Amino acid sequence: MYHISEIAKLLGITPHTLRYYEKEKIIFPVRNENGERMYDEMDLTWLKFVMKLKQTQMPIAKIREYAELVKQGENTTEARINLLEEHRSSIQNQIKNLLSTEKMLDNKIIGYKDYIKTQKAFPTNIPN
Fold first, then answer.
1. Residue 20, exposed/middle/buried by CB under 10 A (0-12, 13-18, 19+)?
2. Can you give the residue range of the structural domain that contains 115?
3. pLDDT per residue over 59-117, tens digit each?
4. CATH number for the domain that contains residue 16
5. Which helix (H) or strand (E) covers residue 120, if one does?
6. Which of 1, 50, 109, 122 sits in a 20 to 30 Å window from 60, CA-based?
7. C-alpha distance across the termini of the chain, in Å
């Protein structure tokens, strides 16, 4: 079992973030006899997944919805699949946009490097 500071350190987040996830009903840590939040390996695995969802721009409301479906049990499997497929589609769109932006940046960088080479070979005025 992990205390809040230990699991926060393992995940590279703050205890405040964990309290926020609890407030948003995304995680449900147990409390020890002193009232301290305690996390087990399943919580750690779940939090790693939650963080991946967050890193891929899934809104907190959708993560909360997914967490609620998980909490409701196996009868929500189809709804969970639908939610994850929708998010996967969003990620695929993000990837397309990032690749397009990367290509544009590559072309811009090549243009600047070509300009620098030309300037060294043929000194001219630098454009605005």
1. middle
2. 2-121
3. 999 999 999 999 999 999 999 999 999 999 999 999 999 999 999 999 999 999 988 88
4. 1.10.1660.10
5. helix 77-121
6. 1
7. 61
